[in-house]
């Protein structure tokens, strides 16, 4: 093999190795971020559950209001033509 070919192959290998290293670092960071987001999502779900329990308990203590409200027909206040 020609020394120039060997040098080009080594440079090409190093270039691809650097790309792979960057991709591996990005993957590791993405996985760490996913773990943080999953933890945050779990905390938010817990808070929503507590809030739901609190609001349900609060609503149970309120007096019941009829869900059927009386509806009044609209009045026609226009004057009839003469």
What does this structure look like?
This protein is mainly α. The chain has a domain at 1-56. Helices cover 72% and strands 0% of the residues. It contains one helix and no strands. It starts with a helix and ends in a 21-residue tail after the last helix.
Looking at this protein, list some descriptive labels.
72% helix; 1 helix; 82 residues
Q: Which term fits the overall shape? A: elongated
Alpha-carbon distance between the two ends: 112 Å
Order of helices and strands: H
**What's the rounded overall pLDDT mean?**
86
Structural class: mainly alpha
Major sheet: none
Number of strands: 0
> Which spans of ≥5 residues are poorly predicted at pLDDT below 50?
none
The amount of beta strand, in percent, is under 5%
**Helix proportion:** over 70%
Gyration radius, to the nearest Å?
Answer: 35 Å
Number of helices: 1
Secondary structure elements and pairings:
Elements: H1 3-61
Quick summary of this structure?
The protein has one helix at residues 3-61. It is mainly alpha-helical.
